[in-house]
# Entry
Amino acid sequence: MSDLLKIVVVGHTNTGKTSLLRTLSRDEFFGEVADEPATTRQVEGMQLLLSDGEPVMVLLDTPGLEDPDGVLDLLDRLAGDARFDGPERIRRFLASPEAGTLYEQEAKVLRQMLQSDAAIYVIDSTEQVLGKYREELTILTYCAIPVLPMLNFVADPGSREAEWREQLARVNLHAVVAFDTVVYDEIGERRLYEKLRTLLDRYDEPLRRLIEDRRRHGEWLRRAASEYLAELLIDTAACLRVVPGDLDATKLRERILRNQDDVRQREQRSVDALLRLFRFSDAHYDHHGLPLVNGSWGMDLFNPDALKYYGLRMGGGAAAGAATGAAVDAATFGATLGLGTLSGAAIGALLGTSLPMRRRIWGRLHGLSEWRVSDETLRLLALRQMTLIRALLRRGHAAQAPLSSKADPDDRWTRGPLPAPVREARLKPQWSRLNPDVFDPERGDRQLAVQRLTDQILADLVGPHAE
# Structure
């Protein structure tokens, strides 16, 4: 651990030092974050790991600098007329009685500074540029290690980023990074590590590997999240429940509500998986139940997509047309038509269809109905999950307010046809985990459909909505 790069995070009280460590480490439980001064009272540390578990850096959280004016005065008094360099001034301060009493918090910070390779000086960019910050910077430069100012909360409308950059340049600090610990910015994080590389030649290689690792991890996160959503949509689109036609109203309602609850639970499992993927607890998501309205009876095997699909399976020509026509007639007149009234050619073609088609037509002729999730509900599922994924991609681990499950409008999912893999899933009950009696996880066509849909969702995530 002593050979690892040590970065100490310092700054005035309540500027977001602990929040920064939470976001960089993807650990929402590190330290204590609260909207009150002096939350951190001790130096706390953590190792920053690469995706393979290799430690690459030690990050150290410190208490806030509460009285820089008093410390600076004491440093001057202890030095007197002697021409001590910066580190010697700090060591004399740490050896003084005041370091263990009046300035105990500042002593903890400066002691850790002398033992570290560099410091990140966290600034609340919404604060006015006051003299106390200039005094803090003067004290920190005495420690003779590189100091990288980091402007926090730059996404806040009240940010004074330009003023802070001007002031930092006046004290010869030109390497400044803007990074928001609440509204996470992947590019901002990369710039932070790049700036550290320019200040720390000795640690160029581990910092380069960290930057590349974070880039690959971001790509993996987006694809994994897209695949979770693709699995949800395939499972839901392929969900098929056969409902007997002789159920009374009460039992029918119970059956529908049970089906709806299964879909809601499937969405909740997807939400839970996404939160785990991004390393957030469920406290970060204010989940509201999916507002299914009567599920949907709308799409069964007699819709145009299904007829086209099964017609192609039967081949071209008159036989296919006859069989399709028989299916349409059966759908129109139900069991009152009966197979006995069909022509011999049509019966032969019908009996030659695929087994799933024959079973479903037979069930329809005998009074069975099919319950499915409507297209509108599928669109809502997609919108809610896309909204959640986008929010998680830009959420820092120090954020406190929970995300809402309210869906944002999205032209891709509110207009036009559903993606082809979703429409195809309508015809494949074997693709859905919500149909446990027939679900086959090893089907190659399902796996291919999930990957095709994953690619489409991923394209949406990295497109115009990604910014």
About this structure: The chain has three domains: 5-199, 221-298+372-466, 304-369.
